[in-house]
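We store chain and fold; example below:
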Amino acid sequence: MFDLAQRALARPDLDQTQHLESAPDGETEIATTNANLDQVRQAHPEAAKAFGGLHAATIKPGVLGMKEKELIALSIGIAKQCGDCIGFHVKAAIKASATREEIVEAVCVSMMMDGGPSFMYGAKALEAYDQLA
């Protein structure tokens, strides 16, 4: 989902239409990532619980609403080139009623702050939105 361009570059011998059809959808990719994270949660539950507590305390609505906070988190995920972060924060932003246009603006903020790499990963955020909305 979020790394289709990287997959295409890694396998130029593939028919791109066939390649895109075989790519996992957003929900499947998020479920796979969650399963992988469960390995860490089981290996070190105390650290996982602490991270979860930090996330819950930070993302809850305050002066900034949840949607705004998810758009900020998405922008950072894009700038840090974290495909899994993009998926999780796009999904959470959609749940918080973010529109595609708001995702585009968050992508542009990342581009302004991080340049070309954010342009590339911003495209992944739009792909995630289109798959998850």
